[in-house]
Amino acid sequence: MMMKNVSIALLGCGTVGKGVIDLLAMNKSLIEEQLDTAISIKKVLVRDLKKYKQMKLPKNIAITTDFEDIINDDEIKIVVEVMGSADFAKNCIESCFLKGKSVVSANKDLIADYGIPLLKLSQKHNVDFQFEASVAGGIPIVRPMYSSLNSNAIEEMTGILNGTTNFILTNMAQQGISYEAALTEAQKLGFAEADPTSDVGGFDAARKIAILATLGFHSELTFKEVSVEGIEKVTQADIQHATEMGYVIKLLAVAKQTNKGISMSVYPAFLQKNHPLASVGGANNAIFVHGNCVGDVMFYGQGAGSLPTASAVVSDVMNVITHFNNQITGKRRYLWREDKKLYSTSRIMSPYYLRMIVDNAPGVLSSISGIFAESNISIRSLIQKDETKEIAEIVILIDSSPNGLVKKALKKVESLDCVRKVASAIRVVEV
């Protein structure tokens, strides 16, 4: 009996697109053996034809700059979207659904903004829409949210979801270098873009946690509902203080679901060194998930890169083909609750590490302590660090307090004449 064949097309042929081509070539026999189906890349959509002619793609792949060449080709059953542009990609994917083509996407921006409407549209037209690679590269986490862990009420997800920031913070700790030097090194090695704002500002991680929370909490959540803080203000002094106190600093993406509602946040945090996420170094990603029955589970691995991300993309393609072969395309049901209830992150309780530059004068510490006392915030410890005749650095740990209340108190502290600046205010996560 002749092996079946499925023709696919790629929208984009950058790092991930080329990885898909290479992976399908590397693991061709293994993939065909599992599916009893051959996968042929028929066409690739690119912006600059000359650039990709020099890439030396396999001769059987046609390169085009016209999306109509793909959408009007009835032989193409699956379209793999790896472009990165949200609005153009959305239009292309909607057109694919209308033509009865299933879609696999690695586009976190697209999924974070339009994921649920696109899923609903795919179901309306009885096609598949899968996006494992949109979060944490090659780490399998999207499908477990609606498959392996779907017997649980997911209560919390905490992740290191951005490799660039993790690389920067790891190097600051290991090499004793400044934030600026670590960022420059990340850019030289290709871990950070020329404009790193999306990564270091926390926005990339925010999009990813919005996707996971949408799936894990069965609610239509968006990137705009995530409270975001980046790592731009983390200094070598903060890294050193964290080390001395038994912590590491990580950029965390956190989503929680309680009877009070859903909250989503991204922020730098002091993690105790015995926390499972504390040892995640370099550009690696990890997601720590708590379900009401399974307890704690952790997913760890390479969160980006050509072949790791292609691994997730091709896995989705194989899943779609399995649905074709079993005649269940577009039949997966998803649960989306209409009564979405959000819980303000300003009300979430956290201990805080605070670093301040103040006048080296009598009465300074009592003035600061007085403001915290008036705000019902308890000081756990207060240490005076480096000092000169005129100024001193003080480090304060405060007990768990509502985030909004801490920010209000810090505004009052910063208004004191004796306080030069509140240099750092970083949440503390304790096991």
UniProtKB/TrEMBL annotation:
One of its GO terms (biological process) is threonine biosynthetic process. It is an enzyme of class 1 (oxidoreductase). Residues 353-427 form the ACT domain. GO terms for molecular function: homoserine dehydrogenase activity; NADP binding. Keywords: Amino-acid biosynthesis, Methionine biosynthesis, NADP, Oxidoreductase, Sodium, Threonine biosynthesis. Pathway: Amino-acid biosynthesis; L-methionine biosynthesis via de novo pathway; L-homoserine from L-aspartate: step 3/3; Amino-acid biosynthesis; L-threonine biosynthesis; L-threonine from L-aspartate: step 3/5. NADP(+) binds at L11, G12, C13, G14, T15, V16, G17, K18. Its EC number is 1.1.1.3. L-homoserine binds at E193. InterPro entries: ACT-like_dom_sf, ACT_dom, Asp/hSer_DH_NAD-bd, HDH, HDH_cat, HDH_CS, NAD(P)-bd_dom_sf. The active site is at K208. It catalyses: L-homoserine + NADP(+) = L-aspartate 4-semialdehyde + NADPH + H(+). Its cofactor is a metal cation. NADPH binds at K108. Belongs to the homoserine dehydrogenase family. This is Homoserine dehydrogenase. It comes from Megasphaera paucivorans.
